UniProtKB/TrEMBL annotation:
Residues 755-800 form the SDA1 C-terminal domain. Residues 605-617 have a biased composition (Polar residues). The keyword Transport applies. This is Protein SDA1. Residues 552-736 form the SDA1 middle domain. It comes from Salix suchowensis. Residues 81-458 form the SDA1 N-terminal domain.
Length: 802
């Protein structure tokens, strides 16, 4: 059957149809247009063969292989047409995607720019409709990015990132991801700079978007720092340094994808005033309330995003590619050896130095040769000295021996902090000293600290603030190094820094002592009732006595009230004979009581009873029986009172023994329940809140927090006024003159005056008679003559004698 017969059989004339209209009709009725599909497919094959023949004959031109633009246009149109209708004819066009990919792979470098872009778009369309797998064409699209065509490069790069993101959106296929990663890893290790650069950019973008957020990708990016090409090394260093500063994209798609791909989503808390919520729902018309609600929602979204970013930046567990280094020590040593031998410019060396410092601080490595290397550059006039000092601070941690950092520390002190140094240099030096001492407090000694503290009296705000911050630090770390007036009221006056290598090892569950203390409080409420009864029993027996005696501190003599009232001296003399025996018996009883008291006191000291009320009750009973200050007792009832006191002491002793024998709450079975852990968490939070309310200084962060924290060079220059340039100074002068009138002479101001002449101006214009003019001239002549006479003679005062 001929072509015309086939067209007429389908109900259409043999006129030529345009490809867009034919495409829309084929999508509506695929089966009715199979003949037209075969025609277009054959035309595509013939155009492709013709194009390849011309390429073989080398019909080259300045714009590409094909000098005839009609062949390129026909080929691109039919490739685009077939790509659109391929999903409707999977059997008829089964070989078309492979032909298109093979054509791009073999002739991409020699194709014209327009044809190359159209064919690439057709292949992307097939991949988006799942007609071709991305693993088969990833190497081709990475190769297309190296051709030098900017439009094609952006198109291929966007497609690769979008396809891999789409593939990992619902669930991650690890086997497929590994196959794609291996392709990029091989390209990154090649010596060809263009291919390695495109592979690195793709890996960094996928890692930043948290699509490939694994150890393999992070390690491959870090290993790119050792590439033979300096450009690849600089690109990898820049990504590693700027990773924590990268913010999410502004479009909603990237924000949504980042939120979905984030393994640890954080809930942002938003605080909006009740007044604005009330106005948005209750005040105004319907349209105004709708606008207020929309504005409120925008504010909530903005605040949530800001809080999410701030929580990510401030979180001590914030992710960095350095966290996934498999051999951090080897990475730092290799990069440091390359830094020592490279001939790169200063900016590149600074980037390498920052990466080394960040790795040493984050993983708490020991790289002893790094600190003498930094010492060579520590000068106030050094370029980028603040970034250099920030790197030095970042490389310090508690696992580094203080002797290795001490020369660098002394260099900073001697070069920055002295009387002839500029105020901004002193401020930066004091801030750096504070940050280093926060990590290694053992570097500071008493004499140096007292010299540095004297800068708190400086008239420069930056210097005085830096010195006071140093005082605040050592109030918490080691108050004994400060003089008495600078110590303030520290939380722990006996605090001292840990020795090198000293580690606190937890022997039990952290916070379990708070739980035990709470249990003791509940038990002591019951025990205190028994102690109060014992104490009240002794006081009742004392109150029943009508006549009291007073015993001296030594317990040698006892005086009677009756004897004192009648005749004190005679009573004392008459009772001397029998008083000695009573005194001996009393001394023996007191010695026994003292022994019992000492035993009870020893038991109370040895017991670690946390509740204060029990201790206070025990002390009250002991002091009451032991000292009995200025208490009067009757001689006849003294033995009974001692017996009651002895009974109460023995009861207290039994209580303490029982408390010693009783095991703690968590040692009965050795297992804490979930309720116990929840109570420990609540008690710890209450304790921290109480300490925070009473704390005068600041809380010293842990070594892990300091290692994860990135040192900001701008904070080392806090309160330092930067020196203005000439243009900035002129701009400030002009800004001050905006609301001020321009400078003019008095005559110009008078001439500009409106509203008539003044009285003095009118007198000048007034016509005077001739006699008045002559009189005025005469007066002025006489006044001038008198003035000259006065100026010629000096007045010496009147003589006191003649």
């Amino acid at each position: 059957m001929s072509t015309a017969d086939s067209l007429s059989a389908s109900g259409r004339s043999s006129e030529k149809l345009s490809l867009p209209s034919l495409q829309s009709k084929m999508k509506i009725d695929p089966e009715g247009y199979e003949t037209e599909l075969g025609l277009v497919y054959n035309q595509f094959k013939s155009a492709l063969d013709l194009f390849q023949q011309q390429a073989a004959l080398n019909f080259a031109s300045s714009s590409g292989v094909c000098a005839d633009p009609t062949i390129s246009k026909d080929l691109s149109d039919r490739a685009s047409f077939l790509a659109h209708v391929t999903p409707f004819y999977p059997k008829q066009l089964a070989e078309f995607p492979a032909q298109l990919a093979e054509f791009l792979k073999s002739s991409a470098r020699t194709l014209p720019s327009g044809l190359r872009c159209h064919v690439t778009q057709a292949l992307i369309l097939l991949i988006n409709r799942d007609m071709v797998d991305i693993s088969e064409t990833l190497a081709l699209f990475m190769e297309l990015q190296t051709l030098g065509d900017r439009t094609l490069r952006n198109l291929a790069f966007t497609h690769v990132v979008h396809s891999i993101r789409k593939m990992n959106k619902k669930h991650k296929n690890e086997a497929k991801n590994r196959a794609l990663q291996n392709i990029l890893f091989v390209m990154l290790q090649q010596d060809d700079e263009a291919r390695a650069k495109r592979a690195l950019i793709t890996l960094c973008e996928l890692h930043r978007r948290k699509v490939w957020f694994d150890d393999r990708t992070a390690n491959s990016i870090c290993m790119a720092c050792f590439h033979s090409s300096s450009r690849i090394m600089i690109a990898a260093l820049s990504f590693l340094l700027d990773y924590e500063k990268i913010e999410d994209d502004d479009n909603d798609d990237s924000d949504a994808s980042s939120a979905e791909d984030d393994p640890n989503p954080r809930s942002a808390q938003v605080v909006i005033s009740k007044e604005s919520i009330y106005k948005a729902h209750n005040q105004g018309t319907v349209s105004s309330k709708k606008k207020k609600k929309a504005k409120l929602q925008r504010a909530i979204r903005s605040m949530k995003r800001q809080q999410r970013l701030s929580s990510e930046n401030n979180n001590s567990n914030y992710y960095s590619p350095f966290n996934h280094l498999k051999d951090a020590q080897g990475f730092a040593e290799r990069l440091f050896s390359r830094l020592q031998t490279c001939n790169e410019r200063f900016e590149v060396k600074m980037m390498m130095l920052k990466v080394i410092a960040r790795t040493v601080g984050l993983h708490r490595l020991i790289l002893l040769n790094f600190y003498p290397f930094l010492q060579k550059y520590v000068q106030p006039h050094q370029r980028d000295i603040t970034n250099l000092l920030a790197a030095a601070v970042q490389a310090c941690h508690d696992m580094v021996p203080p002797d290795a950092v001490e020369p660098l520390f002394k260099q900073i002190v001697n070069q920055f902090v002295h009387d002839r140094s500029r105020p901004e240099a002193i401020a930066v030096g004091l801030n750096v000293i504070r940050e280093i001492c926060l990590r290694i407090p053992l570097l500071m000694n008493e004499d140096l600290l007292q010299d540095l503290v004297l800068y708190k009296k400086s008239h420069e705000k930056a210097v005085s603030v830096a010195a006071r911050s140093l005082i605040t630090l050592f109030r918490e770390v080691c108050p004994s190094l400060l003089i008495k007036k600078d110590r303030g009221r520290p939380i722990d006056p006996k605090a001292r820094p840990k020795a090198y290598g000293e580690v606190n090892i937890a022997s039990s569950v952290p916070g379990v002592e708070l739980l035990e203390q709470l249990d003791y409080n509940d038990e002591d409420k019951e025990d205190s009732d028994d102690v109060d009864e014992l104490a009240s029993r002794g006081s009742d027996e004392d109150s029943e006595n009508d006549e009291m005696v007073s015993a001296s501190d030594d317990g040698d003599q006892i005086y009677s009230d009756d004897a004192e009232s009648e005749d004190g001296d005679d009573a004392v003399d008459s009772d001397c004979g029998g008083g000695d025996e009573e005194d001996e018996d009393e001394d023996e009883d007191q010695e026994e009581d003292d022994e019992d008291n000492n035993e009870v006191e020893d038991e109370l000291v040895n017991t670690n009873v946390a509740h204060e009320t029990n201790e206070s009750n025990a002390r009250a009973i002991i002091i009451k029986v032991n000292k009995s200050p200025s208490r009067k007792r009757k001689l006849s009832d003294f033995d009974g009172q001692l017996l009651a006191a002895d009974t109460s002491l023995r009861a207290l002793k039994k209580m303490t023994e029982e408390k010693l024998k009783k095991p703690p709450s968590d040692s009965t079975d050795g297992i804490l329940s979930n309720e116990d852990f929840q109570r420990i968490k609540e008690l710890t939070a209450k304790k921290d809140a109480k300490i925070a309310l009473t704390r005068q200084g600041f809380k010293v962060p842990t070594s892990d927090d300091l290692s994860a924290k990135r040192v900001d060079p701008a904070k080392l220059e806090a309160h330092v006024r930067a020196k203005l340039s000439k243009e900035e100074r002129l701009a400030m002068v002009r800004a001050g003159r905006e609301d001020r009138e321009s400078y003019k002479s008095k005559i110009a101001v008078k001439q500009k005056k409106t509203g008539g002449a003044s009285n003095r101006q009118k007198e000048h214009k007034k016509q005077m008679p001739l006699a008045a003019k002559r009189a005025k001239v005469e007066r002025s002549r006489q006044e001038k003559k008198k003035k000259q006479n006065r100026s010629g003679k000096q007045f010496r005062g009147k003589k006191a004698w003649k």
